[in-house]
Specification:
By secondary structure, this protein is of the alpha+beta class. It has 3 domains: 12-99, Rossmann fold; 129-194, ATP-grasp fold, A domain (Dna Ligase, domain 1); 200-391, D-amino Acid Aminotransferase, Chain A, domain 1, CATH 3.30.470. The chain is built from 12 helices and 19 strands. It has helices at 20-31, 62-72, 86-94, 103-110, 112-122, 136-146, 172-182, 239-256, 289-292, 297-305, 338-342, 373-386; strands at residues 12-16, 35-40, 53-56, 76-79, 130-133, 150-154, 164-166, 190-194, 200-209, 212-215, 219-224, 227-233, 260-269, 272-279, 319-325, 333-336, 347-351, 362-369, 388-391. Strands 9, 10, 11, 12, 13, 14, 15, 17 and 18 form a 9-stranded antiparallel beta sheet that branches. Strands 3-2-1-4 form a 4-stranded parallel beta sheet, sandwiched between helices. The termini are far apart. Bound molecules: adenosine-5'-triphosphate, glycinamide ribonucleotide and magnesium ion.
């Protein structure tokens, strides 16, 4: 029970991070009459454009985050990005604030070391072999143990930033430098993983709500340079793989707890399913659910965190998503080809409205549905190829 937004009785949700995923969370929250406050490191971020209020601040500055939260006193604090002052979230939770799904989940998934050690060492989930390194020398030693190719990632980064596949000893130094440039925090620490030759990779969206744990049909995806290009749902899987995937998802999400949606990333290999990582929030590859499910991953997240029931999740149609990425930095650009893209049947376009482009930055997504995922992927790809960014 709660009142209307902007009244004394309103239910207030503060979203920490205001990108394309947060924009959809805000829209879904507003459909349920929730007051929304968007926070991020830059102005006019996508979710800020649809929220009731906005704040621009350094997301890693704990004092600044605390000031905003103490001023607003939101009922729900909803992290939308990994790079947040999570120590402050832990302290605020201890003082009675409600962090989604929990401050510990936000803390552990903020850096790859926290979540990997929990998954592999505490829970014993199968993962790629891995080492951590704080210097180029330590990287050399780690790579010597794991062999080539290996995958190098800053412990704090997302969407593939600073991530590379290292194929030989000669490439180690440039991979190290690339990771140092791409990391989000001022921490020179990386994870080195053995390269997994998987048949496919999926995101298993797993929702924890008052109704218990539910799974969305698996989402297959293709990544390039560590970032997602296209996704589809449902991804065809063997019964054995589905059982293993759901078991891994259940174990990691039960450990992390709270209510909300989790994106459990898994590799499907001939030897079984491997855990890769988990987002305690909607997942970029899950944007496809806006075209495929009766309740999108964003609607599910909002329902779950407000404490409402989720009796069932229905897949209405096979579907696919395909991204539009920028190839340079600019604050003066236009996105064209929308008419052509929308002339593709069963297709929608979502322009995020980011104020600037950067090399590799995701600016829009195309969503298509069809009789099967292959047909949907073709439609989404065709429509995405119609879109173009014209720079001044
Ligand atoms: N050990 C590995 N072996 C083979 N491929 C890998 C490995 N680790 C990562 N990848 C590939 O790189 C992609 C991105 O990796 P990962 O999810 O760890 O990065 P990320 O920066 O957290 O991305 P995001 O934020 O989009 O989830 C994976 O989806 C997979 O395609
Ligand atoms: N893989 C995580 C992911 O997709 N996160 C999404 O990207 C935004 C950051 O985009 P930006 O780097 O373009 O500002 C985040 O705010 C979130 O919506
Ligand atoms: Mg990932």
């Amino acid at each position: 029970m709660y009142g209307s937004p902007l009244s004394q009785q309103a239910r207030k949700m503060m979203i920490l991070g205001s990108g394309e995923l947060g924009k959809e969370v805000v829209l879904e929250a507003q459909r349920l009459g929730v007051e929304t406050i968007a926070v991020d490191r830059y102005d006019n971020a996508p979710a800020m454009q649809v929220a009731h209020r906005k704040y621009v601040t350094d997301m890693l500055d704990g004092d600044a985050i605390r000031r905003i939260i103490e001023e607003e006193r939101p009922d729900l604090i909803v992290p939308e990005i990994e790079a947040i002052a999570t120590e402050t979230l832990l302290a605020l939770e201890a003082e009675g604030h409600h962090v989604i799904p929990t401050a510990r989940a936000a803390r552990l998934t903020m850096d790859r070391e926290g979540i990997r050690r929990l998954a592999a060492e505490t829970l014993g989930l199968p993962t790629a072999p891995y080492r951590f390194a704080d210097s180029l020398d330590e990287l050399r030693a780690a790579a010597a143990e794991l062999g080539f190719p290996c995958v190098i990632k800053p412990i704090m980064s997302s969407s593939g930033k600073g991530q590379s596949v290292c194929r030989s000893e000669a490439e180690l130094e440039s991979c190290w430098n690339y990771a140092m440039e791409g990391g989000r925090a001022k921490k020179a620490r990386i994870i080195v993983e053995g390269f997994v030759t998987f048949d496919s990779e999926i995101t298993l969206l797993t929702v924890r709500s008052v109704s218990g744990t539910s799974y969305c049909p698996p989402i297959g995806h293709v990544q390039k340079d560590g970032d997602y290009i296209e996704s589809w749902q449902p991804h065809e899987m063997s019964e054995a793989h589905i059982r293993e995937a759901e078991d891994i998802a259940l174990r990691i999400t039960e450990e992390l707890g709270g209510y909300g949606i989790y994106g459990v990333e898994l590799f499907l290999t001939p030897d079984g399913v491997l855990f890769s990582e988990v987002s305690p929030r909607p997942h970029d590859t899950g944007m496809v659910t806006m075209a495929t499910q009766d309740l999108s991953e964003f609607a599910l997240h909002v329902r779950a965190i407000l404490g409402f029931p989720i009796p069932a999740i229905r897949l209405l149609t096979p579907g696919a998503s395909h991204t539009l990425k920028a190839d340079r930095e600019s604050a003066e650009f236009r996105i064209g080809g929308i008419e052509e893209a929308l002339s593709v049947p069963n297709t929608q376009v979502r322009l995020f409205g980011k104020p600037e482009t950067k090399t590799g930055r995701r600016m829009a997504v195309v969503l298509s549905s069809s009789v099967d995922v292959e047909a949907a992927r073709d439609l989404a790809r065709t429509a995405a190829e119609c879109l173009h960014i014209d720079y001044k």
